[in-house]
Amino acid sequence: MNAMKNRVQLIGNAGNDPDVRTLDSGRKLAYLTIATNEKYTNDKGEKVEQTEWHRVTAWGKTADIIEKYVVKGKEVAVEGKLTHRSYDNKNGEKRYVIEVIVNEILLLSR
Fold it and tell me: pLDDT tens, position by position, for the chain (110 residues)?
């Protein structure tokens, strides 16, 4: 049961080309947004499609795979953990980030 704690699985489409950076240590870091869509019928009988955007971060070999194979619109499945962090921007304002740290990625579309 412990393996199920803080586990996120998403299937969606890349909302942008990934932002991949190589740090001074030589380790790669990839940022990506993934859009997931949910379709349902509301109480008025109207069909509604709702899109949720998820910030995804990957390190190391997973970042390499994202850099080589993921482009805007590509369908992917990711598995990872949900994290929360904060930082101060250039103007000294506190910003909060919720993101999925990716452990595994599957490329679903051609």
Answer: 667 789 999 999 999 999 999 999 999 999 999 999 999 999 999 999 999 999 999 999 999 999 999 999 999 999 999 999 999 999 999 999 999 999 999 999 76
For strands 47-59 and 8-14, give the pairing.
unpaired
Task: Let me know the angle formed at the C-alpha of 70 by 69 and 76, rounded to the nearest 5 degrees.
Answer: 110
pTM listed for this prediction: 0.83
Q: How far, in Å, CA of 38 to CA of 48, rounded?
A: 8
